[in-house]
Amino acid sequence: MSFLVLLLAVWIEKFSALRHRVQRDGGWVRELHKLEVNPRMTNRPWLILVVLVLLPVALLGLLLVVLEPVAYGLLALPVHLLVVIYSLGRGDLLADLGPFRDAWAPGRPASRRPCGQTRPEYLRRQRRATAGAS
After folding, report:
1. Cα-Cα-Cα-Cα dihedral of 102, 15, 23, 4, to 10°?
2. 37 with 85, same domain?
3. Which of 9, 15, 63, 121 could bridge across to 84 with cysteines, CB 3.0–4.6 Å?
4. Could you please report the per-residue DSSP string of 90-102?
5. Could you list the residue range(s) of the whole structural domain that residue 120 is in?
């Protein structure tokens, strides 16, 4: 089931915009601001942490315990999937990897690569092996 959840999460990340609809943090931020302004909570940051993090995690755990034995855990699958999608990073992964991929493109001089690093030795050996085989 874990593999299926991870596979679906990667598929959703690659081919749909569901992640951007699931990852809405406005409600959590509003609640955080309400609790930070509350005079009873300003001196108790641990209580804010308990209310905003531990309480929802405990409720989620309870929901999963209830849903797991029903229908061989198939009802828990969407909950697991939503949790994994919600916990992914907030940026655009493909756009963030673009400059890194371009920096390590073959034929680019080492001085133009990040930190002036050279290509790994195993790539050199692989190139020599394919050149010797042909």
Report:
1. -110
2. yes
3. 9
4. SS-HHHHHHHHHH
5. 95-134
Together in a domain, 81 and 104: no
User: Do 5 and 56 sit in the same domain of this protein?
Assistant: yes
Helices (H), the chain: 2-15, 18-22, 26-37, 45-49, 55-67, 76-87, 93-103, 121-133
| pLDDT tens-place string over residues 78-100 | 999 999 988 887 777 667 777 77
CA–CA distance, 67 with 50 (Å, rounded to integer): 24
Q: Looking at the structure, do residues 64 and 120 belong to the same domain, yes or no?
A: no
Q: In the chain, how many domains are there?
A: 2
For the chain, the first-to-last Cα distance in angstroms comes to 45
Alpha-carbon gap, residue 2 to 77, rounded angstroms = 9
Question: Who contacts 36 (Cβ-Cβ below 8 Å, separation ≥6)?
Answer: 42, 48
Question: CB-based contacts of 85: which residues, under 8 Å, 6+ apart?
Answer: 9, 12, 13, 18, 19, 22, 23
Confidence (pTM)? 0.63
